[in-house]
Amino acid sequence: MGTPSALSHEGQYDSLTHTKRKDGRLHMQIRRLALVLALMPTLAMAQKPSTNIGDITFPNSGSSEAQGAFLRGVAALHNFWFDEAADEFRNAQEIDPDFALAYWGEAISFNHPLWAEQDIAAARQTLQRLGKTRKERMDKTPTERERMYMEALEIMYGEGDKLVRDKAYSKHMEKVVGMYPDDDEAKAFYALSILGTVRRGEKGFARQIKAGTIALDLFTRRPNHPAGAHFTIHSFDDPEHAPLALAAAEKYALIAPEASHARHMPTHIFVQHGMWDRVAKSNKEAFEASSAWVEKKNLSVAKKDYHSLEWRAYANAQRGHWNEIGEAIAIVDKAAKETKDGRLAWYADVMTARHLLVQGKDDGRPLPEPIDGEGRYGNANADMLLALGLGAGKAKNAERTEEAAKRVGKLEAMAKEKGNTYGANNLAIMKYELKASAAMARGETEKALAHLAKAVAIEDTQDPPSGPANPIKPSHELYGEFLVKAGKYAEAIEALNTSLSRTPNRAATLLALARASAKLGDVDAAAQAYEKLAEFSKDADSNVPYLDEVRNFQTMTDAGQQ
Q: Which of 57, 91, 212, 551 can bridge 235 by disulfide, Cβ–Cβ 3.0-4.6 Å?
């Protein structure tokens, strides 16, 4: 067995980051977090990574010939480039068939912790190639440290409920860190394992703070390690905590420019700051990086990063680049039809729904049937129903809007039946938004506001989205718009400011806020909102309807200041 060569220097271990704490003792974790943030200015002196997917150091007992593939595989794992990671680990196995950690790496690539997804059958097949039994696999793993990693994998792909296994895996990775406090890879996988125990809709932020503290420490000491920046972003992916991850977001794409996810992931933080130009640019680069990989490996077009294309379209909606949205929809729609991939069809549908929504348009297509989609990429019927229904409401077609509300209500009932409380609540918000739009179309303003008050009350119980608005029309935004129509400007401003705190710098929210502020005679607040819109829409398409309003207000304001 050869000794692996390091891809970068080892950082010094800071014992402050490893002291064991209970999740409830957030004050100590926050103090450590503040210490890490105080060291951030040193990142400006960071050297360029020696590889295009980041620098890692992972001592192991594999042959020297297998190190390149193995280390690239681990770096790919840290970048959530799971297909590339699996390929590299298989390459390492071909070079060194007895290299236990090469099988560990391939198996772990089938676990996607932040989405609670796992291909347990594929992972177990990989482990079977190393050894038919757990004992046989352990016997082929030569060092105690490597056996600790293999034991963690046996827990991850053991029997029983996934969440129970995720929690047990995380506890085991904590032990690995305790036994090997200088092992930055163990810390990286431990931080990710903590995030992997969080489920959507859960309250509290203790685990995210704990994971983020570990990741931020790694990022500070080893700024070219992909996991430090990446997992810092995931830990603080919400409007309140996003400023803690801005330095990591600025750096991550530079650490691993070859990895599409590394190009995309900073935009989770840019979205939380409402930096629409940055969101659009980074996701363009992410999609291009994935396209280059697909071409290089001669893969199906389904492997391209349409998630980044979707996010770019969302950013372009906010910055008034509406024609580009149509082009993006055409790209994913063509790929969906070529591949018959339901995931791509979902992207095409949700992007189309958002495109209709931003234009305030019902294009007359039939309302989709309320068929509940399965999994992460179920059909986007609810989004399309919301977009078409709200568009119909604007066109005073209350009957069509009411029918859209009924169909979303059926989807809500399906979600409740399956015990999907979070999904049911989202659908309830959309149902009340449609009911409000139908009522407003009939001239029943107070009834419309009552429906929206219900929608807002539900959304207030949910965490802000970690990305594009979800539901695709935030209820506080629609409530504010309808309050403006009702002449209740002070109440509108309150609702719109709440909306901006949850989904910063959305164009529709800023526009309604500017109008409400102007009606109240608050010229400064109106000017501030219009100026934000002008900043984002400086290169907007000429057919964006609010551009003249923004520019006319600016002209009037400038004239008044002279």
A: 212
